Amino acid sequence: MTATLKNPFDISGKNAIVTGGAMGIGFGIVKRFVEAGANVVIADIDLNAAEAAAKKLAEGPGKAVAMRVDVSQEDAGDKMVEKCVKEFGSVDILVNNAGIFPSVPMLEMEPALFDKVIAINLKGLAFASKAAAAQMIKQGKEGKIINIASIDSLHPSMVGLAAYDASKGGVLMFTKNFALEVAPHGILVNAIAPGGITTEGTSGPIGSLTKEQMEQVLDQFKQLIPLGRMGEPDDIAKVTLFLASPAADYMTGEMIVVDGGRLLK
Ligand code: NAP
């Protein structure tokens, strides 16, 4: 990619897939990408929400199309790639954002829920990366894969997230190993570790926590953020745009922490 000094963040004309793009951090990323002139497949388990998201962005300049996908299904990666190629002609950027974070202490954890967390947050991300990278290699051009990890990839936030933290720790090391594997093809793989971000997903009941308990948890969490506020989806979206753009052309296998300084405490 060539970067002009005027706009090193130029991704206009690029074609992207954003998983879990219908709301929360994912929608924030889709918005920034479309605003920057990229075309985006919003790949979400909730088709109505994905379609509503695409509709909100109909004015462009980039295009947004919706598709239903459950990233934990074996053929999810291939289906997303197929859709992006059919709609836009190529896959240049994949953002693996879809994730779940049920809060259930390990001592109460059922194997099926543990499997589900790993299947969506880690295995789904890995096989979507495989499918996108295979397409990028076929295209013979460079590509970018960006994985939404978590500060929990580095340090546990609270009791109840053992499965989640195992999945997100896995995302960090998957990112590094896959970056090594696909570097010879010019495919860059990086991650972002968000801290506490206010989204639809963090605003309701989660796992065994009620909405009220969740509000309390978030309130306590906020006290520990040096910048004094929870993050917004756009705080993550702007850094995702950076990693997707030519400004990050010499970065791979890295994880950027975006947490208002939370891990400093
Ligand atoms: P969110 O508000 O719950 O949005 C996630 C989106 O992904 C939803 O549209 C959800 O659909 C969709 N989704 C869930 N399971 C899916 C699946 N199997 N296949 C496809 N789409 C699926 O979540 P968020 O807070 O924006 O979090 C996004 C990512 O950031 C996650 O990977 C999360 O772990 C990570 N993260 C978030 C925070 C935070 O504080 N928010 C902090 C660190 C990391 P439904 O709503 O229908 O399930």
Biggest sheet, strands in spatial order? 3-2-1-4-5-6-7
CATH second-level architecture: 3-Layer(aba) Sandwich
Arithmetic mean of pLDDT: 96
Count of DSSP strands: 7
CA(first)-CA(last) distance: 38 Å
H-E string: EHEHEHEHEHEHHE
User: What percent of residues adopt helix (DSSP H or I)?
Assistant: 40-55%
Q: Catalogue the ligands.
A: NADP nicotinamide-adenine-dinucleotide phosphate
Radius of gyration: 17 Å
Helix segment tally: 7
CATH topology: Rossmann fold
Which outline best applies?
globular
Q: What share of residues are in beta strands? A: 5-15%
What layout of secondary structure does this protein have?
Blueprint: E1 15-19, H1 24-35, E2 39-44, H2 47-56, E3 64-68, H3 76-88, E4 93-96, H4 111-139, E5 143-148, H5 162-182, E6 187-194, H6 211-223, H7 233-244, E7 255-258
Parallel strand pairs: 1-2, 1-4, 2-3, 4-5, 5-6, 6-7
Helix pairs in contact: 1-7, 3-4, 4-5
NADP nicotinamide-adenine-dinucleotide phosphate is lined by residues 19-20, 22-26, 44-46, 49, 69-72, 97-101, 120, 148, 150, 194, 196-197, 199-202.
Characterise the protein shown here.
With 265 residues, this protein is α/β, with parallel strands linked by helices. It has one domain (15-200, 232-257): 3-Layer(aba) Sandwich (Rossmann fold). Helix content is 42%, strand content 14%. It has 7 helices and 7 strands; from the N terminus they run βαβαβαβαβαβααβ. It has a 7-stranded parallel β-sheet, sandwiched between helices. α1 packs across α7 (233-244), α3 (76-88) packs parallel to α4 and α4 (111-139) packs parallel to α5 (162-182). The relative contact order is 0.16. It binds NADP nicotinamide-adenine-dinucleotide phosphate. The site of NADP nicotinamide-adenine-dinucleotide phosphate has 30 residues, from α1. NADP nicotinamide-adenine-dinucleotide phosphate binds at residues 19-20, 22-26, 44-46, 49, 69-72, 97-101, 120, 148, 150, 194, 196-197, 199-202.
